[in-house]
Specification:
Blueprint lengths: L2 H5 L6 E3 L2 E3 L3 E3 L13 H12 L4 E8 L11 E2 L5 H14 L3 E7 L15 E2 L13 E2 L2 H20 L4 E5 L5 H6 L14 H19 L4 E7 L10 H11 L5 E5 L21 H11 L4 E3 L6 H9 L5 E4 L1 H5 L3 H6 L14 H7 L28 E5 L3 H12 L3 E6 L7 H5 L8 H14 L3 E4 L5 H7 L3 E4 L3 E3 L7 E2 H5 L8 E6 L6 H12 L3 E5 L14 H11 L2 E3 L2 E6 L3 E6 L4 E5 L1 E6 L2 E3 L13 E3 L9 H13 L2 E2 L2 E2 L1
Length: 646
């Protein structure tokens, strides 16, 4: 931790409009699905935890401004007047904790499929919604006026509910960016054509809110720095638009991407860190002294501090980092940055929202469950034995130790981490190594007794005399048939002599074990063909991770054959056969298979000891990392009754 990150600009007070913020850290807005129509107690607890953790400003998740913006359940109806009272619990909680709070207000535009709203998608012009047959409705001038009033009414309700201001969402392909962008605005009236005309609706909204609520009510706008869309807004266009908006607002929040480049909206771990910083810097140079907020894969306080020092932005927006660790700011302020639980940008959070489920975090099982967290009452320390130092076992051991238990952690291999070591092997997945390093630091700072290279037997277990056992021995690969190696072995460091490798998805998971092995093989000089029987690629990964994966495959020459299977041939070739029985021969190729995993088994030397045993993670059933961490944490925190888990 550098001295500048400890005591520098990041933690310095900063003024935004009428608001004096205690520091420059902003919780950036993101959907949670923790409330439907009306603000909820769950959402209040979620924001309270981040305010208590020390952030300067919270930007509440987007609330919709008009019935035509209803895209799905789990959205707060910002235009519903009952929210004026419902918001109070949240705004009061945030203010009591010392933070300010504004609310993002949005019209979803063409990202409405009509299922919930039973209306066509409103947009400046007729545009086809990607992946559907639906065409948006070109709004009339009267409908534009109706939406402008919807933004104003929503802002009124926010003010009545105790918010310090609003942030108007004019980015990411939603309605207002649809007006701003020449790629989607083909109007010939005074809302289309020139940049001044295309910006008109946003200025009308801002000015109407200002006239209604006055200069003390903060107004920000989320703008794009680059639409990354053919025919869309380029960085120069975005600077020009920002300069038109800046005199009317208290801050600008800079992002990038659109529906045509949706993978940039919530960039996953393979994207460069701080991908929007230079875009924000260009806008800041044009709009100063209006403050500029930047978001987008800012992983640590050192990066945040450098952005401020180099004057690319005035405020640092964090969303996923604060989902993972609500105490992020407090830990920076105390100099305990090594205690920050890292976001690895795996995007389980985005995946849950995209799947129309409540937000979950892979690395923080408690996200969204703040109301359920209870203080462990003082009790006699237990002797907890954790068998297996993979993610589930590490989480169980650290949680039990933090609760005052005497913990021994056994691991049969020579290092901790389990499957994290394999998962983080490809260059594009090395962010996962941050979580592994976090666990190493936490173990070193704890009182946990770690024993590596140990295969426990009954005598050892009896000598340890545990009062409870957490079994976290993980999964093992399904043995491959008719193949040289498994993907598991490749990710573990096994090498191949063959130049050509055919990698087959036998398990059918269509997920990261397959793709990570393909990338690792390509990165080490092999010519790789991925073969899958699936009809669509990447159904086992988060949707926004697929475009960057395909770009990496293209750059490395990785070939993908769907609707196909690979067959070994005795003459040293691999035959790839598709669903119509067409065959392609790959000479001199080695066949590697992703054969899947199975539980390592729950039976062992611990049977018959008369000690409560709880299985967690993949030994219970091979699943996702998020589930392993959640089960490990619950096991580490659990109180045990005479007959097992209470």
């Amino acid at each position: 931790m550098t001295a500048t990150a400890e005591r520098g600009l990041l933690l310095s007070p900063f003024k935004v409009g009428s608001l004096q913020l205690r520091n420059r850290v902003v919780m950036a807005p993101h959907s949670t699905h923790y409330a439907d129509r009306v603000e909820s107690d769950r959402l209040t607890a979620y924001y309270r935890a981040r305010a208590e953790g020390g952030v300067g400003l919270i930007v509440h998740e987007p609330v919709i401004v008009h019935p035509s913006s209803l895209s799905r359940v789990g959205k707060i109806w910002g235009y519903a007047r009952e929210n004026a009272e419902a918001y109070r619990a949240t705004t009061d909680a945030v203010h009591e904790a010392g933070a300010a709070i504004v609310c993002q207000i949005i019209h979803n535009g063409r990202q409405v499929d009509g299922h919930e709203s039973q209306m066509p998608a409103w947009y400046p012009s007729e545009v086809q919604r990607g992946g559907t047959i639906e065409i948006s409705h070109a709004m009339t001038v009267e409908e534009i006026a109706e939406v402008v009033e919807g933004f104003v009414e929503t802002a009124r309700i926010c003010a009545a509910g105790g918010f310090d201001g609003v942030e108007v969402h004019a980015a990411h392909g939603y309605l207002l960016q649809g007006f701003l962008s020449p790629a989607t605005n083909q109007r010939t009236d005074h809302y289309g054509g020139t940049v001044q005309n295309r910006t008109r609706i946003v200025l009308e909204i801002i000015r109407a809110i200002r006239a209604e609520l006055g200069s003390e009510f903060v107004i920000g706008v989320r703008v794009t720095g680059d639409e990354v869309q053919p025919g869309g807004l380029n960085p120069e266009d975005c600077v020009e638009i920002s300069a038109l908006l800046a005199p009317e607002v208290d801050y600008l929040s800079v992002v990038s991407g659109s529906l045509a480049s949706y993978d940039r909206i919530v960039p996953e771990m393979s994207f460069e860190r701080g991908l929007n910083v230079r875009l924000a810097g260009r806008i800041r140079a044009a709009v100063a002294p209006v403050p500029v907020l930047v978001t987008g894969r800012i992983p640590d306080p050192e990066t945040a501090e450098r952005i401020l020092i180099e004057e690319d932005a005035d405020l640092i927006g964090l969303a996923r980092a604060l989902i993972v660790d609500p105490q992020w700011v407090a830990k920076v302020a105390s100099g305990a940055t090594e205690q920050i639980r890292p976001c690895v940008y795996a995007n389980d959070c985005r995946d849950s929202i995209g799947g129309r489920r409540a937000l979950v975090c892979m690395v923080n099982p408690d996200a969204g469950r703040e109301r359920e967290l209870v203080r462990i009452e003082p009790r006699a320390a237990r002797r907890v034995l954790v068998i297996g130092a993979g993610p589930a076992g590490l989480e169980a051991a650290l949680t039990a130790s933090a609760n005052g238990d005497q913990v021994t952690l056994l691991e049969r291999s020579s290092k901790i981490g389990g499957q994290l070591n394999r998962a983080s092997a490809p260059k594009s997945r090395r962010e996962l190594g941050r979580l592994l390093r976090y666990y190493q630091q936490q173990l070193a700072a704890s009182s946990i007794e770690l024993r590596l290279g140990v295969e426990p037997d009954t005598a050892m277990l009896r000598s340890l005399d545990p009062t409870m056992i957490v079994l976290a021995t993980g999964a093992v690969p399904v043995p491959p048939t008719n193949a040289v190696l498994s993907a598991w072995e490749v990710l573990g460091g096994a090498t191949l002599d063959a130049k050509h490798v055919v990698l087959q998805d036998v398990a059918g998971g269509n997920g990261w074990p397959l793709f990570a092995a393909a990338e690792l093989l390509a990165d080490t000089g092999h010519e790789v063909t991925v073969v899958t029987a699936a009809t669509a690629l990447g159904t086992g990964i988060e949707a926004a991770a697929l475009p960057p994966l395909m770009r990496r495959f293209k750059a490395r020459g990785v070939r993908v054959e769907m609707h196909s299977r690979a067959l070994p041939h005795p003459e040293g070739v691999v035959v790839v056969r598709n669903d119509t029985d067409e065959e392609r021969i790959v000479p001199g190729a080695a066949l590697v298979v992703e054969s899947g995993r199975r539980s390592a088994g729950v039976a062992g030397a611990w049977d018959g000891l008369g000690v409560p045993v709880v299985a967690v993670g993949d030994v219970l059933a091979p699943r996702r990392l998020a589930t392993a961490l959640a089960e490990g944490r619950r096991a580490g925190a659990a109180s045990f009754a005479k007959d097992g888990v209470a």
